[in-house]
Structures are given as C-alpha cells and as structure tokens.
Amino acid sequence: MDETGWNDVRDALTDLDFPADKEQIVAHAEGRGAAAEALRLVRGLPLQTYRNISEIRSSVPLDPADDDRQTVDQKARRARSPHTHRIAEHLRDLRT
C-alpha cells in the first residue's frame, strides 16, 4: 500500500470512536465520503474489533507487489516461471 492510500484511510477515520469493529469502521469511512482507495482498504480489513488507528494500520491488507516495486507484468511473469518447485516465489530469477 502506498502512503496516499493510508493517508486517505487515516483522514477518513480521524474522529472514529474506538474500540470499533470492521463494520463500524467501514460505515464511518463511507459516511465521511472517503476516497475509493480508502474504502477498498478498510473493506479488506479482517473481521475483529480494533482498539486504535495503529491496529487498523497494521491490519490493512498489503499487496506484496507494492513492497517489491513490481509491475503487474513482472508479477505475472514470476507466477508463470517454470521454477516453481523448492524455490520461494520472491527468490525466483526473472531475468530470462
């Protein structure tokens, strides 16, 4: 997740009362007119009760491609790699 997405989530939840469960968080973000990316991220939260914004931040689903700075094409090439046995996906050589 990029910082813009998290900033949108944080801005949408600034006045949320904690503890709050996922349904309350999503409803609050929708009520505040959150950006589409922020709504996508809070809708992807695991079902649980959150005690503060830090717990939400650590639970926001992350796309591994964001961390690796991979394009969609690179990620697809990695998934099609013939070296699928005994080599972790993130360790495969994609230069071929």
UniProtKB/TrEMBL annotation:
A UniProt-annotated Pfam family: DUF2795
Q: Where is the composition biased (Basic and acidic residues)?
A: 67-76, 86-96
Q: Which InterPro entries match?
A: DUF2795
Q: Quick one: where's region Disordered?
A: 59-96
Q: What is this protein called?
A: DUF2795 domain-containing protein
Species of origin reads Phytohabitans kaempferiae
